[in-house]
Each structure stands twice: as structure tokens, then as C-alpha cells.
Design a protein that fits this description.
The chain is of the alpha/beta class. The chain is built from 9 helices and 10 strands. The chain has an 8-stranded mixed sheet, with helices on both faces. Strands 4-5 form a two-stranded antiparallel ribbon. It is globular.
Length: about 325
């Protein structure tokens, strides 16, 4: 691949710097379908709380579809100011103990996915990345009143075993993160991903709880000391706000109660969307049984949500900035 074909510019000496070699790579890309704002929020926290420096910058103008995702800009009295334009960069970051790692974060590309993933694989190989770790959030019929489950995936089974026993097979919409997992694995680089199961009725709100769960799994997988204190405090406050709003609507309370019953029943039977450590040994359901169960949950949730919209307050999750 020639320099003209690449979608990125590397800072001087990035590939010659031995301190950047052999490090874990964390991938946290924000996009509209990132439930709970999980990956985007995590990336922002890591950059805000930890020492970092950009080492590679991707060409956002070529990767971003400005028609589908318009940048925000502030109108202040009589003029425009502070445009928030998309960025996508690879950073060298140090954790709280000074241990280095790489962080790819920013807006997920809308365009040129195959060329972008090829570039990331090339970068990972040149920097001899030790392992690639992805985080994301996706909506699931789980209650916010229970521990947030995580679906673990990837080629590094030593980093994913014991996290989730719910292992369905399904055709799902792809993402750049999921495509990167495939391409990095094909290139011989170990991968591990942590998909946070976000309560579906809160998936469009930014939830520090989900970013906190993702951070905890990254800390364990990469043996990093990451800054969780502020996220933990925010999570407690947001949880109280959600509980207050839920308590004001009997319809929403009923919906949450049904989700709790299903969650607890799955835990008792040893399967479902629960952390493995909280499951008893039990019979794993067939693929058809899992599909029927998920469809029933989604239908039930949709019905309850429509009732809440018609008869009660709209929305549950706080709009966090």
C-alpha cells in the first residue's frame, strides 16, 4: 500500500519509537448505534483522565458522511462558534501507574470500511500490537436494576472465558469494531471484545454505568490501572435519577418488573444474559429456544413501552451531556 492510498498520517517517528511497540490496543469508536454511548464515553474519559499524545490521525473528511451525521456547532447570540468536527486518532496513553497502551478512539467511519480496517491492521502489525481489545454497547431486554451483563468475544479465549455463557448464533448488523476483530484475527493478532448489554429502554441515553463496566473489563484484560472513580460517582447519581423517573410511572415499573423476573429466572436456570459468575449450572437452551425467548422479550418490551408512551411520562433515561 502506497502512502497515497493510506487514510492516515503518522506523526514523525511513530513507527520507529520502540516505546510504542508490543502494546495492547484498545478500540473504542463512537457511533449512533453505540447503546448507552458506551464506547464513545469510555474513549472521552480515558483521554480526559490520562496522559496521552496522538501518534496517528485518520482522514475524517474521507471517512465521515456529513449528510447522515452532521457536526454540531454553537449559535451564540449573533454568530456561529465552536464547531465539533469528527476526529479519529490513535493515541499513546499511560494508565494511572504509567503503563503505556494504544487507544483508537473517535467517530466510527461511515465510509471506506475495508480500506480503513486494512490500514488499522497494517498499523497494528508495524507496531507489533500484543492484543486488540474492543468495547461497544448494544440494547438488550435487561433491567437497569440488576448487574449489567457483558457478552465477551474474540480469539483470545483466555481473556473471554467465564464472562458470558449466553452464546447465540445470529446474523446482526456489522460495525467497524466487529470487522476489525475479524481482520485482526486473520492477521494473527489476538482479539478480545466486550459488548455491554444495555437496557433497551435506556439505550439512547448516555449511561456512565455501561462505560464503567467496559472499563472494568478492559482493566482486567490488559492489566491496566484505569480511572474509574469519576465514572463510579456518575453511575450512582444516574441510577438514582432513573429510579426516580421509573417510580413515577406504574406502567414503566411493571415493564421493569417483568424484565427483572425474566433476568432472575434465567439466572436460576443457569443461562441467559447474566454474568457467568452469577449463574448456577444448568441446561443450555437450544438455538430455537433462545430465539423464541429473545423475540418474546422484545415483543413484551415494545408493548409495554407503547403503553407507557400513551398513558405515562415519556422516556426513562436522563439526557446527560
Amino acid at each position: 500500500m502506497t502512502q497515497e492510498d493510506r487514510l492516515y498520517i503518522a506523526h514523525a517517528g511513530a513507527f520507529e519509537n520502540n516505546r510504542l511497540r508490543g502494546l495492547p490496543l484498545v478500540i473504542a469508536l463512537s457511533h449512533p448505534q453505540d447503546a448507552g454511548g458506551t464506547a464513545g464515553h469510555l474513549g472521552e474519559v480515558l483521554l480526559r483522565e490520562l496522559e496521552n499524545v496522538p501518534v496517528i490521525e485518520f482522514d475524517a473528511d474521507r471517512l465521515h458522511d456529513y449528510r447522515s451525521r452532521k457536526p454540531r456547532i454553537t449559535f451564540k447570540k449573533d454568530h456561529y462558534t465552536n464547531p465539533v468536527l469528527p476526529e479519529l486518532k490513535l493515541y499513546a496513553v499511560e494508565d494511572r501507574l504509567g503503563k503505556p497502551f494504544l487507544l483508537l478512539t473517535g467517530a466510527e467511519p461511515d465510509l471506506l470500511w475495508q480500506r480503513f480496517t486494512a490500514d488499522v491492521v497494517d498499523i497494528a502489525q508495524r507496531l507489533e500490537v500484543s492484543v486488540a481489545l474492543t468495547v461497544t454497547g448494544f440494547p438488550m431486554p435487561v433491567p437497569h436494576t440488576r448487574p449489567i451483563p457483558v457478552t465477551a468475544h474474540g480469539s483470545r479465549k483466555d481473556l473471554t472465558v467465564g464472562i458470558s455463557s449466553f452464546q447465540p448464533e445470529a446474523l446482526v448488523p456489522g460495525s467497524v469494531s466487529s470487522l476489525l476483530e475479524v481482520r485482526l484475527t486473520e492477521a494473527g493478532i489476538g482479539t478480545a471484545g466486550f459488548a455491554v448489554n444495555v437496557p433497551q429502554y435506556l439505550s439512547e441515553s448516555e449511561l456512565p454505568q455501561t462505560a464503567l463496566v467496559a472499563m472494568e473489563h478492559l482493566s482486567l484484560a490488559a492489566k491496566l490501572s484505569l480511572p474509574s472513580d469519576r465514572l463510579r460517582e456518575l453511575s450512582e447519581n444516574v441510577q438514582l435519577q432513573i429510579d426516580e423517573q421509573a417510580s413515577a410511572s406504574p406502567e414503566i415499573q411493571m415493564m421493569i418488573q417483568r424484565l427483572e423476573e425474566s433476568y432472575d429466572a434465567n439466572a436460576a436456570q443457569g443461562f441467559g444474559s447474566l454474568p457467568l459468575s452469577q449463574r448456577a449450572a444448568g441446561k443450555v437452551p437450544s438455538r430455537d429456544e433462545i430465539g423464541d425467548e429473545v423475540e418474546a422479550f422484545l415483543a413484551q418490551l415494545d408493548h409495554r413501552t407503547r403503553e407507557a408512551d400513551e398513558d405515562g411520562p415519556r422516556g426513562l433515561g436522563p439526557s446527560l451531556s
